[in-house]
Amino acid sequence: MVDQPIISALVLGIIEGLTEFLPVSSTAHVLLAGHFLGFNSPGNTFAVLIQLGAILAILLVYAQRLISIAISLPTSVQSRRFVLTILAGFLPAAVIGAIAHDFIKTVLFETPILICVMLIVGGFILLAVDRMKFEPKYHDVMDYPLSLALKIGFCQCLAMIPGTSRSGATIVGALLLGADKRSAAEFSFFLAMPTMVGAFTLDLVKNRALLSFDDSAVIVVGFLSAFVTAVFVVRSLLNFISSRGYAPFAYWRIAVGAIGLTALLLGA
Known about the structure:
Distance between the termini: 27 Å
Structural class: mainly alpha
Number of helices: 12
Largest sheet: none
Radius of gyration: 18 Å
Shape: globular
Order of helices and strands: HHHHHHHHHHHH
């Protein structure tokens, strides 16, 4: 018979993989699902550690392009500038995340009502932005200027409030700053790489004392399920966004937030 924690880890890993790169807040979905499943993770380490599966998924999908960029660095000004834009976009989250880590994990992550409210608010914002008529100035992530990347990086910091969504914050920020829908989503993918690796490393260092060998099976199950589902999402998301926009994700956020808020207020 399979242990309940293993089943919960499988479910949470699938949720993480499906939602990490969508503008719906994977953290919100994993924390709320964990709350209602009665899944206990000391310091909420599980929610961050299984992100490694999603990290490896996006590295796998973009491996050929990443290798091409790395090989061209010595000779290509565009490739060197692109790497600098990703680092510029990552910098705000690296600094603010390191400073506010304990507050985020012990206060914000422990407030399910806040998570639900942010899901709903973010859903309405995403819906409004999706309906706006823009004249995009930027269509290729390789040509984003440093100033644009830095501004998107500050937008990403809003996602430290669980329920906001890292990808949602970066995509909305990019759209408002002049990027088209496809490149905004793709830049969010690339920015996720250092950001998620940084969050994973910091959380691992901060909470290593809370981890034990007994947690390994649960984390492995969560990691593998997150990896498989994230590969599917990353490979299909850009085409979906190009044809359907962000409205479906906005409605999903609002629905999940409303259902979760109702359940919490009813004492579930």
